[in-house]
Structures are given as C-alpha cells and as structure tokens.
Amino acid sequence: MRKLLAKAAVIGLLGTFVGAANADPAADKDAFQNYYKEKFPKVEFNDFQNGVYSIDPASREQWEEIEEFPPYEIAIEDGERFYNANSDAFANCLPNGGIGVAHTYPMFDEKKGQVVTLALAVNNCLKAAGKKPLKYKKGKMASLTGYLAYTSRGKVFDIKVEGDAATAAYEKGKSFYYARRGQLNMACAHCHVDNAGKYIRADILSPALGHVTHFPVYRSKWGSMGTLHRRFGGCNKQVRAKPFKAQSEEYRNLEYFLSYMSNGIEANGPGARK
Fold first, then answer.
1. Helices 164-178 and 2-13, packing angle to 10 deg
2. CA 108 to CA 227: how far, in whole Å?
3. How confident is the model at residue 4 (pLDDT cuts 50, 70, 90)?
4. How far apart are CA 255 and CA 230, in angstroms?
5. pLDDT at 17 over 70
6. Where do the domains of the chain lie, and which CATH numbers do they carry?
7. How far does CA 24 lie from the centroid of its chain?
8. Residue 153: its pLDDT value, please?
9. pLDDT, tens digit, 9 for 90 and up, residues 114-169
10. How do residues 239-265 score in pLDDT, each as one tens digit?
C-alpha cells in the first residue's frame, strides 16, 4: 500500500510541476487510457462507461437487473417536462437548444475565460431569460441534465482543450485530481488510478476512465438523482476534506480534466449506481 501511495504521489507531482511547463493533454489522455487498457485487458474500451460494472461480473449482474427498470426513468421524464416548459430559455442559448450536445461539455469559454459545464450553461440560460436558476446538486438540475444527457446517449465524448487559457484550466483540474487533501491525505488518484479494481471495505473501487460518461446518476445510497459535482463533494468528505461548492472553479476544472480523459467513450447518462 505504501508503494502504491508513493506512486500516486509521484504521478501527482509530475502532473503539477512537469505538466504545467510542458502541457500536452493529448499525451496525457493516451497514457491515461493505455494505463487502464493494460490494467484491465479483458475490458473493451467503450465498456469503461459502466464504471465498476465493467470490471466486476458479480456487480454487473446485479446492475443489469436494475437497468431493466431503471430508477432514473422518472427523472428523465421530469427533466423533459421542465425542458419543454422552458424551451424558450434554451432555444437560442445552448447549441442545438441543448439536445444531443451533453457529450461536448464541459467546454472552455474563451470570452469568459473559464470552463463552462452543462449545468452552468443551463443556469446561465435560465438567468438570461429572467427565470430562476436551479440548485446544482440534485432536484430539477439533476433531472434536467439527466434528460439532456439521455439525448446524447451513444454519442462519443469529444471534449476540446485548445489554447493557452483552456490548457491552463485543464492543468488545474489535473493537479486537483492528483493532489492529496483532507485528514486522510489522499488524492482522487489513490482510489481510482492505483487501486482501481481493489476492495475498500465491501466495495470495489471503480476505474477513473469513463467516470463522467454516465452522470448524473441515481445512487441507491442517496435514494435520488445527483449531479457529478454532488459526487465530487461526497468524495472530498470521505477523505475528510472540506468540499468545494458545486460548480466552483475547482470542480469545473476537475470535470474538464476527467471528461477529456474519457474522450472516445460513448455517453450513457443518466446512470444507476450503488
């Protein structure tokens, strides 16, 4: 375990210091994806969209039974109703009105100089139309983005990192992923890179590759739908670190990094998880 933690620490330092001077997102992506292809050689590349269910047959069998009557179906219907009732806010504000474009988010907005996630874009549109913005962790936002994600199912993740400003945001997200934090002094990579496929208590740690493709998700633990940033906050709490606010710059940059790492995998949100 100490060797694994040391390895993750080295990766983190390289990502922070070497990467900042010689950023090469494309090379990062290739190395990241090849790592999982070698670690789990029996898993087809696109199947990483299914998280832990791509590497554990027993968990997958249970999950496939759940998917016969998916618990997120009602959320998709609620999200569609909300979308239709507020379509005027999205029609000329989101690309294609937001339909079938979830796999292209997050994207870097050169004018604003920041990463824009789909959830942030949705609220920007609502506010621009004089409507009340949605809370970011659950509820209507999870349902609406769940519906929008559903319209992108089967489309390949295609996140762009182009230009110095976008690359700088990507590098911040990468550094966040490999940085230790909290009382447990752990990085995201400790669980989902080095120890992916191993047990933590009674659960198997999922691979980071494909993590973002199925969000938002219905988690049995929550008993409801939740967004990716809600999950980020939960992970931070689990290592006894103070979470950032949903849609903070830190979490948007982190989502940018993870989404770029999953380029080439088909979107399959929303999903169901434990």
1. 160
2. 20
3. very low
4. 12
5. no
6. 2-70+161-273 (1.10.760.10), 73-150 (1.10.760.10)
7. 21
8. 97
9. 999 999 999 999 999 999 999 999 999 999 999 999 999 999 999 999 999 999 99
10. 999 999 999 999 999 999 999 999 999
Whether pLDDT at 20 is above 80: no
Which one of the listed residues 93, 188, 191, 235 is annotated catalytic? 235
Amino acid making up residue 9: A
What's the CA angle centered on 175, arms 170 and 180, to 5 degrees?
155
Closest to 245 measured CA to CA, from 227, 268, 263, 269: 227
Cβ-based neighbour number of residue 196 at 10 Å:
20
Could you write out the DSSP letters of every residue in 56-117? -HHHHHHHHHHHTS-TTHHHHHHHHHHHHHTHHHHTTTSGGGGTT-GGG-SEEETTTTEEE-
pLDDT at 236: 96
Q: How many residues does the chain have?
A: 274
Helices 140-150/73-85 angle, 10° precision: 90
Phi, psi of 254 (to 5 degrees): -65, -45
Please say if 235 is a catalytic residue: yes
